[in-house]
Amino acid sequence: MLAASSRSGAVWTRALLLQLLLAGPGGCLSRQELFPFGPGHGDLELEAGDDRVSPALELSWALRFYDKSDINSVYVTTNGIIAMSEPPAKESHPGLFPPTFGAVAPFLADLDTTDGLGKVYYREDVSLSITQLAAECVQRGFPEVSFQPSSVVVVTWESVAPYQGPSRDPAQEGKRNTFQAVLASSDSSSYAIFLYPEDGLQFYTTFSKKDENQVPAVVAFSQGLVGVIWKSDGAYNIFANDRESLENLAKSSNSGQQGVWVFEIGSPSTASGVVPADVNLGPDDGAAYDDEEDEDYDLVTTRLGLEDAGTTSFPYGNPGRGDANTYNLPSVLSPRQAATERSFGSPTERTRSFQLPGEKFPQQHPQVIDVDEVEETGVVFSYNTDSHQTCANNRHQCSVHAECRDYATGFCCSCVAGYTGNGRQCVAEGSPQRVNGKVKGRIFVGTSQVPIAFENTDLHSYVVMNHGRSYTAISTIPETLGYSLLPLAPIGGIIGWMFAVEQDGFKNGFSITGGEFTRQAEVTFVGHPGKLVIKQRFSGVDEHGHLTIDTELEGRVPQIPFGSSVHIEPYTELYHYSSSVITSSSTREYTVTEPERDGDAPSHTHTYQWRQTITFQECVHDNSRPALPSTQQLSVDSVFVLYNQEERILRYALSNSIGPVRDGSPDALQNPCYIGTHGCDTNAACRPGPGTQFTCECSIGFRGDGRACYDIDECSEQPSVCGSHAVCNNHPGTFRCECVEGYRFSDEGTCVAVVDQRPINYCTTGLHDCDIPQRAQCVYTGGTSYICSCLPGFSGDGRACQEVEKTRCQQEQEHILGAAGLADPQRPRPPGLFVPKCDEHGHYVPTQCHGSTGYCWCVDHDGREVEGTRTRPGMRPPCLSTVAPPIHQGPSVPTAVIPLPPGTHLLFAQTGKIERLPLEGNNMRKTEAKALLHVPAKVIIGLAFDCVDKMVYWTDITEPSIGRASLHGGEPTTIIRQDLGSPEGIALDHLGRNIFWTDSHLDRIEVAKLDGTLRRVLFETDLVNPRGIVTDSMRGNLYWTDWNRDNPKIETAYMDGTNRRILVRDDLGLPNGLTFDVFSSQLCWVDAGTNRAECLNPSQPSRRKVLEGLQYPFAVTSYGKNLYYTDWKMNSVVAVDLAISKEMDTFHPHKQTRLYGITTALSQCPQGHNYCSVNNGGCTHLCLATPGSRTCRCPDNTLGVDCIERK
Fold it and tell me: Is pLDDT above 70 for 383?
């Protein structure tokens, strides 16, 4: 139903509802009175079928719609919609209203024209007869308006059938609907005319593919999504959506003629909503309303209520002409908001997450918006704040870690013990938090008249809550702007305010807002023209447990020279609180130190002023809740700002605490909990005591003394916690219950059998949402599951596929086949003809083979043969792909490291990510395997682990580069990206603090310090395909493999490059990975040519075959009595017991793609030392260990370096 926003609007709504519900007999519209239609009148015909969408109908005269005046094309759908833009493929069948696109819907339902079941006609008509007919219809509805259209769009749905789904409804057999929509436009306005002839509507419900039951049609208008950065539902107006009102569409009218409904849809009056005509039927056309009928109005309108507020939100208010007010329900979420803002803790049908202790609540029915006529205020649809708004039907608005309490005027949510937040959003006290989002900006730098624009830039933040310290990184900031944004630490500082350490009686931002608020800040640089405006929107906790933020920057900033550093002294800021609004303003300084020139580094101190306003929703019903202090002081120190020019990343770090207003530095008088000197574990909360006393308390889901906290395995300790027919999966700080196949969660939170779940083949029944058969295929996978995939030559997610340009490999294929007269690649090829193989993305397959000779070789991304890789027939070389797989569109994956839990783990590389697999003894805890780090668009090959600093190092052959990341958390960094060819194996000397790597393209082995500096080439002769490399740190030895197909070998040398010799050369095929076990002094390797794993003690000549018959091993590591290797054919990690020469276990990652390097992340370093482990061995630069000594070496580039080499 439509909503009104004024007294007159309320009266109109009352009349409109009465017209729809209480229509009387009269002269109905005949089919002959419809606008002329059909091919004879120039109509186009929509392709027959289900869920069809027309090509764009280009208009000669722009259509106006809501606040838009430039709609130059429309799209017509089978399902009773005229769309203002092309509907997304996923919305081709009816779903929740409103859609994401602008829409005029005279009868939105799942309609079908398959096999001649009706037709859909459409055209633009500028003829005088049709424009005059439209003008007369509009004139009847709006007699005070003078309107003469220049263009008319006529769309006719003739005898269309209902879509009935897999089980046909006999009652709808033979039922057909005919109706028409006309859009008339002049220079200044547009109108819609809906026509419903007598007996034109024979059915009012259709089968919903989404809900799998019959749902009523909808007559409505929708503006679609609005906003530049923060997309949200625009205005929309629902006119009819139940059987009673739909039945009366042909019997009543708002324009004085039965079956004809007129609406003003585009003019200055429609910015906030469509304006309906308001002409009642004459005495002869409708029923006379007596007082008794009038008194029943409230009962009737309540029955006609809008859709459930739990599934739809409405921009309340369909104003009359000239009215501009819109009424909103602040606590009701739109479908897209409901998916993003409230999904934290919202279970899927078969999976639910828990964090104990916490209550389990049955799933609640969505709240209902009552429809009341309020003559005093003119608000027809109002948010009901009476006794009906209780926890009984609103429990879903609270976090699963909150309790709901009823009060006299409503309900409030509050977090349970051990959690913090505002009740709508709660997180475990003391637990580290992550914030992810996007940044866009349009910024002028200095006096430049050309703005620097950027968008879709990632923001990631990591917060150590019990220290109040936030680390924020914003990626891909242009170099021309990066340094000039250094003073703007408060961009990330708002995250610090959210999780500032709370002093007794004071609240940080998350406790107040739950991470759901908007912030607008204005920055004025004293003595500099212009200002910068910062707009940020925080949308609460997402389904991954991360907070989400969108940021927009616009304005002007002073220019800061390239290479400068910025220092910001500790500062305080006063936050002033009132109902749902927080304000603050401050003036502070920053110092810019420019790069050194001629021995001088000039520095300048500048002043800037900050003003900000934060708006949020608070619960006003709990009068017993302690009031916030009207003013709180945020204290910020240890401010760190940095712009990394190479990586184009802007970094901000700040420590924050919130407390009373005070002067000077109170640190000496404060509790360690407030100033971050407590030493509690990152998964612990600090509890202040008297004076400087405090205690550390592990967060919910962890156990320990607070100084060290360990994850509680609820699944092991409480085997029945998930109940019967469920599987329990442990996660850090929480666990997840999943119903077994054939069961689902009931409203009570238990797993119950799925009844009558007959498999439906969505592909053959046409119920799928894949793209058209010419672009995509639907593959049925059993039950109710299916997969959409684009056909060769197209790219996308299968639901929307686009034709792609042919790659170099595909072009070469076509050229060779065309020249040989074999246009069909499936036809037999003549002997001796080589045709390159391309992968599913069109790139060259890294291993190419000649079908006739059996020879195989490696190629680079351009298809050129890599020298020295051609193998004899019957053996495939272990070639590496240098092209990363395409990144699928969707939510961006955070690139920050997820901190590693205590214990020993296997780390393995899988294309664009590194995963961790915990070990318990020698057993792989496969159910706890998780992604450690996502680095999309990279192919990670080698891995090495530094047990001292808990860092993982890797090689990437796509850029190429060498990178590292801390396992404590934070963003990955690139340490080497110059002068690399194909870096593959990587090893680390944790005592001498050096890394070593092989480069199979440059055919050399290099060494550098752990930060990538002081590079030196150790070997660059007699190497063909060096790959695996490993160190023996305590003895100062280095070992590596070379899978040279003519002369494969395993070599060794001292770490300084001396005493090089071949260790193994006989009976080798393609030696790939190798590992050295410091405890047993065994060197082991895996060979993809001989399909064996072997070991030897380097000081003894004999070698031992550990296991034969391996598939295609790539990399290997050791721990305890086991070897663990990655296998290319099985895409798995395999555990082998060295003592009994037997495969013990296999782990198959969820994502079945090629696995590369593997290493062991030890919980503590092996005991021992070498001659470089103390004071860098007395060396000025590189210290390289040797057995019983060390050698001091200089880096290769020693220009201007004061370096001393000695043994």
Answer: no
Quote the CA–CA distance of 1026 and 1023 in Å, as a whole number: 6
Rounded to whole angstroms, how far apart are CA atoms 541 and 435?
9
Per-residue pLDDT reduced to its tens digit, 614-639: 988 888 888 777 778 888 889 888 88
* Higher pLDDT, residue 738 or 229: 738
Can the peptide bond before residue 98 be classed as cis, meaning omega within 30 degrees of 0?
A: yes
- DSSP β-ladder status, 501-502 and 649-659: parallel
- Out of 266-275, 309-318, 418-427, 434-443, least confident range: 309-318
343 burial type by CB count under 10 A (0-12 exposed, 13-18 middle, 19+ buried): middle
d(CA 382, CA 332): 12
Whole-number Å distance between alpha carbons of 752 and 742? 8
pLDDT band (50, 70, 90) for residue 886: low
| d(C-alpha 276, C-alpha 260), whole Å | 12
CB 446 within 8 A of CB 530: no
- CB within 8 A of 413, min separation 6: which ones? 397, 398, 399, 402, 403, 404, 405, 422, 423, 424, 619
Of all helices (H) and strands (E), which one includes residue 815?
helix 808-819
The burial class, CB within 10 Å (0-12 / 13-18 / 19+), for 143 is exposed
Range with lowest mean pLDDT among 699-708, 751-760, 991-1000, 1099-1108: 751-760
Cis amide bond preceding 886, omega within 30 = no
CB 640 within 8 A of CB 514: no
Q: From start to end of 841-938, where are the E strands?
A: 847-849, 856-858, 905-910, 913-920, 923-924, 930-934
CA 979 to chain centre: 35
Tokens 């109509």 belong to residue: 43
What secondary structure does DSSP assign to 171-232, as a single string? GGTT--EEEEEEEEE-SS-EEEEEE--TT-----EEE-TTTSSEEE-EEEEE--EE-SSS-E
Main-chain phi, psi angles of 1053, to 5 degrees: -165, 165
Cis peptide before 960 (omega within 30 of 0): yes
Tokens of 472: 């924020």
DSSP structure class, residue 131: H
pLDDT above 90 for 78 = yes
Structural tokens at position 11: 């009266």
Q: How far apart are CA 310 and CA 332, in angstroms?
A: 7
How much is the average pLDDT of 335-349?
33
Q: Give the C-alpha separation, 548 to 906, whole Å.
A: 31
* Residue range 976-999, pLDDT digits in tens: 999 999 999 999 999 999 999 999
C-beta of residue 931 within 8 angstroms of C-beta of residue 915: yes
- Backbone phi and psi for residue 103, each to the nearest 5 degrees, phi listed first: -150, 140
Per the structure block, which two tokens stand in for 1025?
A: 């395909």
What is the Cβ-side half-sphere exposure of residue 752, based on CA atoms within 13 angstroms? 8
DSSP code at position 838 = B
Q: Tokens 């700080």 — which residue? A: 733
CA-CA-CA-CA torsion sign (43, 48, 53, 56): negative
Q: How confident is the model at residue 330 (pLDDT cuts 50, 70, 90)?
A: very low
Q: What is the 3-state secondary structure (H, E, C) of 655-704?
A: EEEEECCCCCCCHHHCCHHHHCCCCCCCCEEEEECCCCCEEEEECCCEEE
Least confident of 54-58, 197-201, 380-384: 380-384
Task: Give the phi and the psi of residue 764 in degrees, each rounded to 5.
Answer: -80, -30
Top-ranked range on mean pLDDT: pick from 526-540, 728-742, 884-898, 982-996 = 982-996
* 451 token code pair: 């703005």
Q: What is the pLDDT of residue 683?
A: 78
- Half-sphere exposure (CA, 13 Å, Cβ side) for 1115? 30
